[in-house]
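Running this now, will post back.
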Amino acid sequence: MAEAESSVKSKPRPIIRIGLFLISHSFLVSVVCCLAGVLTLLLLPALAKNTYISENALMPGSASPMLSTEDASDGNKFLNKILNWGSKTSSSDIEIPKVIAKHMLELDAEVNYHKFRPGSNKFNPLHFFSGPEAGIVQDNSSSYGVNTVGIVRAPRGDGKEAIVMVTPYNSVKITMGEALSLGVAYSVFSLLSRVTWLAKDIIWIAADAKHGEYAAVAAWLRDYHTLSVGDLKLHPDMCGANTLPVHKMTNVIGDSVSNGFRRAGTMAAALVIKVADSSNEFGRDVLNIYAEASNGQMPNLDLINIVNYLAVHGHGLQVRVEKIWSLIDSWWLKSLGELIEFLGQVAKSLNPRWKFGIPVSDYVEGSATLASSLYKQALGVPTGPHGAFRDYQIDSITMEISPKFPSSHRVQFLIRVGRLVEGVIRCVNNLLEKFHHSFFLYLLTSPSRFVSVGVYMIAFVLLIAPLPLVAASLYSDTPKSKLGEDKISSKSASSDESVSTFASWKWLSAAKTVLAVHLWGVIVTLLPYFISQIHNNSPSKNLLAWVALSAVSFIFMHTLSGSYPFLNRNQPTKTRMDSS
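Update: finished.
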């Protein structure tokens, strides 16, 4: 009786049986998962939700704007002075910071110059393993950038928090758009120096972008968070250390321009204000929002939401985010959008509560925007100088306005954009803590629609599910192959000693594969550095060269790894079969 019970095998648990079934049919399951993952990815624009403001303390649009026509007129006069200095003098890289600092001092702001060395423009993948100072040129240079920084202390604050405005400009050859951005920032800065409701300090950085917008902002942030000798005095032996302008003002009350480094509190948010060329595509001003930072980091979604809400509902701006324009005219994407729209209509006829389909135009534009968001986050390269703030966990975006107005309506433009910036600063000023309520992981399909991490992770999981399944399937086949080898070895008991010798070297087969893969990874990582040495190459040519050389190196490493027969895992088996 006991022998009969012991002979009956106990059935495994259901989850184990399901796992064994999936492993035994790994190829079919892998194909199904990949197809389902691609289908889910194509459905993401239809599954996107409308954005909403999660933090109640922001209260966008709850207060009337205070920026007046007088503030905008002062900003217009300021930008005219900037343009005059930029066109008349050959030393505009020194005179323009002097003009900016002078006007900051007139507003009773604390002003200082920040002098920084230009960073290297050449790409070096080995800098990834170094500190933040690895990209700084260490040798002497005759060209330095000078950022002009002004700080307005909040009358209701304790100096522990701050909001940052950044206006990059080329001090060597300033453009009309850069002058307009300086005029907008000056108008807002002039207003904020007088208001009584301010609870956070305001920092205005006129970033000298002649060596790059990102480099100027990143250098200031690095010094802001690092106490250095430069905070106390300038080294006289530094190249160009005596070129900073000196102010001797008799009509200005307050401290003069400081060569030391002035600081405020912890930065709650940062806004990069840029004005692009005039927009001929739309009949009104266009606001482009750039949010992607390094390594695919995104700011809190609430920051984008308040900018979009105030721009659309408060000032009538056309808000856009980046998209891949080549997908707009794609016939297959339009056909897929028509199919999804038809399925949505069928679902709505069956149950009015089912809201699945979206119009074809919305689906195509959402797909193009989603593809751009995926590409930018996967690439890991910042889309603007705001990316430097995200490296320090500071929520920031770049607001690029493309105006459409004649030169006589410049004051009206300054009022509209200035009130938008004022509204965003007022919302952030209401916060009692940093942004944390809304999403940090999301994909945008439009300025007002997003795909949360809980939705797009479904497609991600479906696409990577075949990897562990195939690995488990290969592992489960290993005992069978070993069992076959044992049977063959038992039949040929008098095999040569070379068989055991080869068997002892069998582990090198896996080691050589791992080594080949790592060597190929090193080659692929170092290729961009050598490709960047080729002059007059466009980014598309560099990308094609990188892909082609990576493929050639892969074929070479694959051939090289299979050129040693004594390391082949199947060699012992063949030897045993020959001996039998």
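The chain has a mean pLDDT of 80. More later if anyone needs it.
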